Amino acid sequence: MTIPIPAEDPRHVPNRAVIDPSAITQNTRDLTGLLEEHTALMAVVKADGYGHGMLTAARAALEGGATWLGVAHPASALALSRAGLDVHILTWLYEPHTAAIVLPEVISSGIDVSVGSPEMLTLVADAARQADRRARVHLKIDTGMGRNGVLPEQIRQIGAAMREDDFIEVVAAWTHLTSADDPTDPSTDQEVALFDSACDALADEVGPIPLQHLANSAALLTRPDLHRDLVRPGIALYGYPPVATDVPLRPAMTLTSRLALVKEVPEGHSIGYGRIRSTSRRTRLGLVPIGYADGLHRAGSDQCDVLVRTASGDHRAPQVGRISMDQIVIDLGPDTDASAGDEVFVFGDAGEAPTEPSATTADDWARAAGTIPYEVLTSVSGRVTREVRA
């Protein structure tokens, strides 16, 4: 028997990931505005909506003009369907055990399923027979990622198998580009050529393919020629474009905490594990009860600022020393008026006036840790309460 452990009462935890659905809605509108009328937008809300809450992100994106939702796992697709969202849903990542359990219900619910190998086709066909309903299949083509997807030389074989199976309906072909976030990389055009050739071969076997899709956030923003029938933005929906753009995307998550204590220390006082930082002057340090167990990457230690809201206004303060599991230390300076209980903005939108210092972003934390904002956002752990802004 499994006994659930109750979650911490959010009223007793100072850390908050404040989600602004209006930012996701507006970002979706702005991205949809880049598309031709015939091109649809699939909002990718996998990984619990990139840490923003899957249902919150999905509803906000639909309000902004998305007409499809995409998730990796079938269980997520079922959750979207059960929430009553009347929209096309695509799921693409499953293994045999999961497939046997959930794919029949997925197909019964009218959810589209990706197939990326002959073995996956068998799993989907078996589930469709059990559900007594044709499966709507998107054939995934591996054009260079080396992950999920049928190799181009397998296209005719799998196309013939799909054509001969009455429980399979081919509704789309798709791929995932490896390097679209570098517009100068020639591999994108090479992958597109492979994809187009594979689609021609597939059409020879199964007839016209209703939908083609290959544009992620980066390709959506930089390659309008690759928009085709459907685009699949993920990170851009949440306010972090992976390429330079003039589209005014706005971050949708703000990570906050509060000062637990403020204390004065002398010059030369060491801070944190390993003593990687010592004070260069007499100063006041602030302790913030958030750490790597909450999602801050330890690799980013001693490299980012936070924003502290004190009685006199907003002030940036560097995070100093190693990031610990449950806490960080910030250098408030010798003359600060900060006190325990003051709000700390780790990253995101502090609602600051134009004349005030701006809050740090997930991009800043990603650069500090040598990673990407995708990982920063999805690393914000479950013990950080999500608070949806009205």
TrEMBL record:
General function of this protein: Catalyzes the interconversion of L-alanine and D-alanine. May also act on other amino acids.
Family listed: Belongs to the alanine racemase family.
Source superkingdom: Bacteria
Catalytic activity: L-alanine = D-alanine
Record-listed E.C. numbers: 5.1.1.1
Top class in the EC scheme: isomerase
Ranges that cross the membrane: none
Residue positions where N6-(pyridoxal phosphate)lysine is found in the record: K46
Any GO molecular function: alanine racemase activity
CDD domains: PLPDE_III_AR
Signal peptide per UniProt: none
Gene name tied to this protein: alr
Domain Alanine racemase C-terminal as annotated: residue spans: 252-389
Positions of the catalytic residues: K46 (proton acceptor), Y273 (proton acceptor)
The protein, known as: Alanine racemase
UniProt source species: Brachybacterium tyrofermentans
